[in-house]
Amino acid sequence: MEASLLTVKNLRAWYSREKTVLDGLSIDLKSHESVGLIGLNGAGKTTFINILSGLMGQYKVDGIWMNVSPVKFRDKDFKLRRYTVFDEDHSFQYFTFREYLSYVFCAYHREKCDVSELISGFHFEEYTDMLLKDLSTGNKKKAYLITAFALKPELLLLDEPVNGLDFTSTEFLYQLIADYKKYGTILFSSHILESITLTCDRVLVLEGGKISKCFEHKDIEAAQIREALHDEKHV
Ligand SMILES: Nc1ncnc2c1ncn2[C@@H]1O[C@H](COP(=O)(O)OP(=O)(O)OP(=O)(O)O)[C@@H](O)[C@H]1O
């Protein structure tokens, strides 16, 4: 069994006094595993990923540990160990992909690396010097995904990574997710069951503000997951 990478205990999060979204969520991500996060619309997947990414402050938690040392989501050290690809991202719109990539590698204190395989895998060659604001939704998503897989953080968070991608890029992404264990841990949310069944070691179901079910290796079958979500809809 791999060592623990990130443990979050009893996370509660809200948007307003009346609107608690996460309510007692606990999670333990191992080093070098690929974990899918599923849940019905509005279950709180994006909220959870935003909190892990340090974007949301309205939460309380009993404890957060990275490699068994206490951390905070906004600690500089934690920031440098994770990178997030958001479902929608409108930051750095006046950067080209190449400028953005350089900026990120510099911010993470990393040496630049060769990204040509990622660029060709995502068929992104002709877009590398365009401003991010001028890219289509799918191509913008590719710019952030290429950055993420080039950077190879210890913890990679992807919110709905398949959204907006064409089918050849989707297949390339599945391969990257499945292979990521060599470099670190990946947590990604998706509504596309295939993206999870083809790539994950574990699937977590977010329901009622917490992780209500967990499917491991051999149990990850689309039919079972569909059934779990179906049950959830009828509680
Ligand atoms: N900025 C916000 N202000 C108020 N409520 C919000 C805000 N963002 C999200 N919510 C609410 O929080 C709940 C969880 O939303 P969230 O986007 O995290 O769910 P999700 O599981 O990612 O949904 P989906 O699958 O539809 O993307 C929803 O009820 C949503 O309406």
Automatic annotation (TrEMBL):
This is ABC transporter ATP-binding protein. Pfam families: ABC_tran. One of its GO terms (molecular function) is ATP binding. Residues 6-233 form the ABC transporter domain. The keyword Nucleotide-binding applies. It comes from Faecalicatena faecalis. SMART domains: AAA. It comes from the Bacteria. Keywords: ATP-binding, Nucleotide-binding, Transport.
